[in-house]
Design a protein that fits this description.
The complex is a heterodimer of chains A (about 375) and B (about 625). By secondary structure, chain A is of the alpha/beta class. Chain A has twelve helices and 15 strands. The longest helix of chain B has 23 residues. The chains are: A alpha/beta (about 375), B alpha/beta (about 625).
């Protein structure tokens, strides 16, 4: 997986190009790369020509077929949603969990179940609101700590930096919830020849993601509208609403998504993955239904765990209608198409896809 | 009993130049000493502090040099004898007041010791403070050795009192910091009391002009005194055609050069100790039959120019005399004087064969030097909080990504210009200069200036000179982030106390004035953080960089050299079974990049290693090691 490049290349090809996803894979593995808020920087060139930082980055070369083989033992046949075993709708049985969750509460319910049954003993999660609106990645060991990690605030935090930090404490049997770029980086870490913290990750729940916002711009924007410390929850209702809703102690504040779009991270425009294609299980919203999730089971380990959870009555499931599945595939394909177009526009070279190494079939579909 | 207190007139003792100055002041019955620390002057007040109780001398480390001169002048006005000491830039700081007390005059003997640092070995400028004597019309004395340092200081008090003017005594590093034999004088019975009388106003137009005229008359009196001074003498053959005219440290360099070249019978040396105003009659008397002179002095051609003016005035008496020195290009008007430079000037003027050292000798010296003296770069001490602070600053600026930069100041933090400070500091000028500059940069936004500016200064510098600029930043809402590196004392000169230290020059408890309270009073946002908590400090400094207007971050952590002396520190070691050497992605971060002299690379084991002799036990490296291989000895892992 290592491309024989180091931190200077990472700086040149990713960081200075605005392509950093702030996933944190390169942070806390050496003293040179640091993250504050969602800003990652190489503080000082380490001088090494080859580095894990470059190898792990979700925006350095990634051969989709090779990674498919490493995670799933085979390559994909579905070029919109990636490898999967099953797709259905799901929701947490526990209404209290559902109440706090962004949609159907499936992620919270599954993590709680995994921690309580010893399926995992630690979980790297994200607390959506830490100081000044910035989310914070946390390592939890008790299911009671899960509560504050429910929901999203649409700003990416360096989740994998937390995972790398956990490696110092020799943590094993870790569960991780991440957005597609984080899951992608995690799989690169696991496929690496190096000893990494990712080896201890046993369960990966990936979230659907269309884009994330850059902290600074979005925070300044919100500050102009409301005291950010009053915000309890941020939601983007399913299309066609095209709005963002801030739930605050003083009532809801709504504004058009168009106002927010200018804060979307540059790197999201080149993202090829909407549904966390390399996760064990992917979870996202369901078009038009607020209190259910879409649940994609991808790996045998994911399936075993979901079957167990269903049996234990942790989640309810029901089939996802064909039209909704169609729309999901369409949305995911659209993101891929847009990414490919954005990359080609960036490189000004039709055959240069930057970090993406696509199979012939995928090239045929998206180029 | 130390040599300073020894009441044995005529006894010869070995003394540091600065101790000799202090002893001279004691023999003169000094009552009062105020100073701001600065190399090479610091040992003068420190010596007086050591005997302060014995001789009833009031000693203080003042907030800065102008305050020192002001408080010392108060003592003089009240009829006491007072001494102020400072390094060369300090004379600039106190110049404003100096240019007023020359007009109002003083009462009790007031001596200003200006300690110049040729070659700027411990300074940020090279300056010849003698120019202030001419500028302010004040008498100037230049001791040539330790004996003169003592004797001239003693005499300077009498002269000052006689003239009603402050007297400037100029020393240089090689005199202040060398040791020679000094014959002691007697100790006086002190019995002065302080009382204010008279008027000292420098304000009224007509009066001012009259005061200026009086000043010139006083200087005439000084000139008369100087004509008979024992500090001016001639050494050499009776009818020399060639004479070296020299002052201060130039005397010994000249004597050695003449001796080394075997020119004792041909070249005379006219040594002047009272260099402003010049003892013209004395000089003319010794130049009657001379046709050529070489002027040897440090740093500016101060004596040379004054002599030239005098020669022009005395042209009828003396006839044409060729003057060699800085203007003729035989000696540099910069850097430190050496015996070699004087010898070189002599051989080239006299057309003699240049003195060449044996090549083998030169090579041997080089070889030995390399064998026994490892090459070293200026570096922060082991455990220095500034190293952590500069790493935090570098990290925050890099994360910020807007090409921000650091304006620097004087003191230990100025080492941040180099490797040990990760080359972060881009400007260094004078005390308080960093924040002043930064305040200006912070107002350039209308000209598309968008780089963040961090001004760093030490805590002592903050009190000394940074406050007016910070007030300026506040009232003009300048976009500047000031970082005060608060290590609890004036560290670079030997940890003298400052207004925040809580103790005085005698080590007695003293009230404190807190930096953060001053900032709050000025109305700027201030945060106080520990630079050893590196991650938190980076995050907070980064956050502050995102804000606008004036802001202050105080990185507070006591100088670790002091901390380690006073308290037993933890012993750190590298667990070489945990350290994976070059297999780690850190690329020898601790020994190569973080650059603390306490961590070295163990060539044999190919692992990092703590140098337990150098390590002060601050523990910062342990928090930075990516795999946690640096541990506390004896602690459970």
């Amino acid at each position: 997986m290592e491309a024989g490049k180091g931190s200077s290349d990472l700086e040149q090809e990713v960081l200075s190009q605005g392509l950093c996803t702030s996933c944190g894979a390169c942070v806390n593995i050496c003293p040179y790369i640091k993250v504050v808020k969602d800003k990652v920087a190489v503080i000082e060139p380490c001088g090494l020509t080859e580095g894990k930082c470059y190898g792990f980055c979700p925006r350095t070369p990634i051969d989709i077929a090779a990674l498919d083989r490493s995670v799933f033992g085979k390559t994909r046949s579905d070029y919109s949603l990636g490898p999967y075993i099953s797709i259905e709708m799901a929701q947490a049985k526990d209404s209290e969990i559902r109440c706090r969750a962004q949609y159907g509460g499936v992620v919270s319910a599954l993590m709680k179940y995994a921690l309580e049954t010893g399926e995992i003993s630690n979980a790297v999660l994200t607390k959506p609101f830490d100081s000044a609106m910035m989310p914070k990645s946390v390592l939890v060991e008790e299911s009671s700590q899960l509560q504050e990690c429910a929901g999203s605030n649409y700003i990416a935090s360096a989740t994998l930096a937390k995972l790398n930090e956990a490696a110092k404490q020799n943590k094993v049997s870790i569960g991780l919830v991440g957005i597609p770029c984080q899951v992608l980086a995690l799989r690169k870490m696991q496929a690496s020849k190096h000893e990494t913290s990712a080896r201890g990750v046993k369960l990966v729940i990936g979230l659907f993601c269309t884009w994330a916002l850059s902290y600074k711009g979005f925070y300044e924007f919100l500050k102009g509208k409301v005291d950010p410390s009053l915000i309890k929850r941020i939601d983007i209702p399913p299309p066609p609403a095209n709005i963002m809703v801030l739930e605050t102690a003083a009532g809801d504040i709504r504004f058009s998504l168009d106002e927010v779009r200018k804060f979307i991270k540059l790197t999201c425009s080149v993202c090829y993955d909407m549904t966390s294609e390399f996760a064990d299980i992917s979870v996202g919203m369901v078009e038009g239904i607020e209190d259910w999730n879409t649940l994609i089971v991808r790996t045998p380990a994911g399936k075993r765990f979901i079957d167990k959870a269903k049996k234990a009555g942790v989640i309810n499931t029901r089939p996802l209608e064909q039209t909704r599945l169609g729309h999901l595939k369409e949305a995911s394909s659209l993101k891929k198409k847009r990414a490919v177009d954005a990359i080609r526009k960036r490189t000004n070279d039709k055959s240069n896809l930057l970090y993406l190494r696509l199979s012939a079939q995928e090239k045929k579909k998206y180029l | 009993m130390g040599t300073l207190e020894l009441n044995q007139p005529g006894k010869t003792v070995l003394m540091l130049g600065n101790e000799a100055i202090a002893r001279g002041a004691i023999e003169a019955g000094v009552d009062f000493c105020a100073a701001y620390p600065g190399t090479p002057s610091t040992e003068i007040p420190e010596s007086l502090a050591r005997v302060a109780e014995r001789f009833n001398i009031y000693v203080e480390w003042s907030t800065n040099e102008i305050v020192a001169l002001e408080v010392a002048t108060a003592a003089s006005i009240a009829g006491l004898r007072a001494l102020v000491a400072m390094k060369q830039p300090g004379v600039n700081v106190c110049a404003d007041f100096l240019m007023a007390i020359n007009l109002t005059g003083t009462n009790g003997g007031l001596v200003l010791v200006a300690a110049d640092d040729p070659r700027a070995m411990s300074s940020v400028n090279e300056q010849d403070s003698r120019n202030y004597a001419r500028h302010a019309d004040l008498p100037l004395l230049e001791p040539a050795d330790c004996q003169e340092a003592k004797d001239m200081t003693r005499w300077a008090f009498e002269l000052s009192e006689k003239l009603g003017l402050p007297c400037i005594l100029r020393t240089v590093t090689r005199l202040s910091h060398s040791r020679r034999n000094v014959k002691l004088g007697d100790l006086p019975q002190k019995k002065r009391t302080a009382r204010f009388k008279g008027v000292y106003i420098c304000r009224d137009q007509d009066l001012l002009v009259a005061q200026h005229a009086t000043l010139h008359q006083k200087l005439e009196r000084a000139w008369e005194e100087f004509e008979a001074s024992q500090f001016n003498f001639y050494a050499g053959p009776g009818k020399a055609k060639f004479v070296i005219v020299t002052s201060g440290s130039g005397w010994l360099y000249s004597r050695e050069a003449v001796g080394a070249l075997g020119l004792q019978d041909k070249v005379g040396i006219l040594k002047i100790g009272t260099t402003w105003p010049l003892p013209e009659k004395f000089i003319v008397a010794h130049l009657k039959n001379v046709t050529e002179i070489l002027v040897v002095e440090e740093v500016d051609p101060f004596l040379e120019q004054n002599i030239k003016i005098m020669l022009a005035e005395q042209a009828k008496t003396l006839g044409p005399i060729e003057v060699y020195g800085a203007k003729s290009g035989h000696l540099p008007a910069y850097g430190e004087m050496t015996q070699d430079k004087v010898a070189h000037a002599l051989t080239s003027i006299k057309g003699l064969k240049p003195r060449v050292r044996d090549k083998k000798y030169v090579e041997k010296v080089k070889e030995l030097a390399l064998a026994y003296i490892p090459p070293r770069v200026p570096t922060f001490c082991t455990g220095c909080p500034h190293r952590a602070s500069l790493w935090v600053i570098k990290s925050a600026l890099k994360l910020d990504g807007r090409d921000g930069f650091v304006t620097g100041d004087i003191g230990c933090s100025s080492i941040g210009t180099g490797l040990t400070g990760y080359f972060q500091v881009k400007t260094v000028h004078c005390m308080g200069g960093g924040i002043g500059l930064a305040t200006g940069f912070g107002k350039l936004d209308r000209f598309a200036f968008d780089q963040p500016v961090i001004a760093i200064c030490g805590d002592s510098t903050f009190y000394h000179a940074a406050i007016p600029a910070l007030i300026n930043a506040r009232v003009h809402n300048s976009n500047v982030l000031m970082v005060v590196l608060d290590n609890g004392g004036t560290a670079m000169t030997g940890f003298q106390p400052h207004p925040g230290s809580g103790f005085d020059v005698l080590g007695q408890p003293a009230p404190t004035v807190e930096i953060d309270n001053i900032c709050r009073g000025i109305g700027v946002e201030v945060r106080v953080r520990d630079p050893f908590e590196i991650s938190q400090a980076v995050q907070d400094l980064y956050d502050m960089l995102q804000e606008s207007g004036p802001r202050v971050m105080v990185f507070r952590r006591r100088c670790f050299r002091i901390e380690a002396k006073e308290k037993l520190q933890k012993k750190y070691f590298v667990d070489q079974t945990k350290c994976i050497g070059d297999d780690c992605g850190c690329a020898r971060f601790c020994s190569r990049v973080f650059n603390c002299p306490g961590i070295v690379w163990d060539q044999q084991a190919q692992r990092a290693m703590i140098d337990e002799v150098a390590c002060t036990g601050c523990g910062v490296c342990a928090t930075l090691c990516p795999i946690g291989a640096i541990l506390v000895r004896g602690a459970a892992s």
